[in-house]
Amino acid sequence: MIMKIILALSEKVLIYLNATDSSCVVERKVFDFSNIFRLQFYLEESCSFQDCIAFCCKEETCKSVLYSNREGTCLLIQNSFDDCHSKQFRLKNQPQLYAVHTCNQSASAIPDVMRTVQEEELLFLPSYDNLSSSSDEETLSASGYSPEASEILNGDVQRNETYSVVQFDVESEESADDSDYETAQCSLAIYQLLEECHINFLVKGEVISGYKVILHYSNVEHMEICAYYCRMNWDEDRCGAVSFLISERNCTLYKFTHDERAKIRLKKNERFIEIIACYDDRSNERLQNASPLRYYFPKTEDVCIVEFYKQRILSSWQIIDGTTNASSLQECMEKCRDNEVPNGCTAFNFSKKQMCFLFRKESGTSLYATLSESVFGQILFCFPGGVTDILN
User: Fold this and answer.
1) pLDDT tens digits along 205-249
2) Which of 213-233 are b and which e, b meaning 16 or more Cβ less than 10 Å from the residue's Cβ?
3) What gap in Å lies between CA 24 and CA 53, rounded to an integer?
């Protein structure tokens, strides 16, 4: 049976174990680690995530593992944590709980890239159509839109780049330089690849540990292009983060390293994002679309990249309130921009009868049939600019 492994929306992933030449399905779980000592477990020293899973597979009573990449430790646990939810996002350098579902010896079909995957890279793996995976019932939908996070992000960057915020979670850590930092979890469209990436957006902080420079790019227009370069360099260089200095249009790509001495020291107003996971963004509905167009919005003094859809039956869109009237396509788009923060608007449907529907992206919604004699567009990304920037 041929199915598709979904790595961004479901935390069930297929990994390869070198020690046993086998494959295992594991699932990252949400768990209150303060309760860990109430469980039956025993400790193993583990130099890799695969070794930790392999230890569990050898023990008949082992159902889950608690793995710490930083400490190199592996707790084998007899509880399967069926009552705990899957965890969609992982905090780097924090112990992670994984339920071990199934292991088998038939690993010949696994691509070579999966034979060397490390725990911190699990969510960076692309989807493979020839791998077994969880069923649709096991796939988790994305988190809901968070206006609070959008206000923080857009307020912090003064509307310079616009991100679709799917979840907000602030994390603080102390670096060796006593410089704490905070991140917000967001979603960024990489429209050139017809995919969407979950990212950690740095809200506060100047020093980031655990990354080293791969490449520098100059004359880069905005952060989305910088992130696109990172995705293009993933296979070869394992790019996992970028920084972008808008005043100089400089883009820097980084890869994760286990060397805690490696540090990034950001300049003033230099923005940093960490790419957590990327997945196909409805490519089957978008392959026939024309190249995105640029529109200038005088009210916000920014330029938005807009993709118009040819297909008339669309998924993953939730109507915001009811219909509204608009005298032009531009006005309909501006209404969507006005509703970006309070309602999460990222798409619109405008008809010749001057009807304007606004939408937010939401997984698991019913299919939407666009209005007759209308255009349906998605606002992919916005950045600061003027009229001349729409000519680029």
Assistant:
1) 788 888 899 999 999 989 999 999 999 987 777 899 999 998 899
2) ebeebeebbbbbbbbbbbbeb
3) 8
With bands split at pLDDT 50, 70 and 90, how would you rate the model's confidence at 139?
Answer: very low
Is the pTM higher than 0.85? The answer reads no
pLDDT digits (tens, 9 = 90+) for 298-328: 888 888 999 999 999 999 999 997 778 899 9
Distance CA 106, CA 47 (A): 24
In contact, 198 and 281? CB cutoff 8 Å: no
The burial class, CB within 10 Å (0-12 / 13-18 / 19+), for 109 is: exposed
Closest CA to 13 of 277, 267, 380: 277
> Token match 């603080």: residue?
172
pLDDT of 103 higher than 70: yes
Q: Are 214 and 226 in contact (CB under 8 A)?
A: no
* Structural domains in the chain, sorted by start: 12-138 (3.50.4.10), 147-280 (3.50.4.10), 287-391 (3.50.4.10)
**Cβ within 8 Å of residue 255, ≥6 positions away:** 211, 212, 214, 237, 238, 239, 240, 241
Interval 246-274: pLDDT, tens: 889 999 999 988 777 888 889 988 999 99
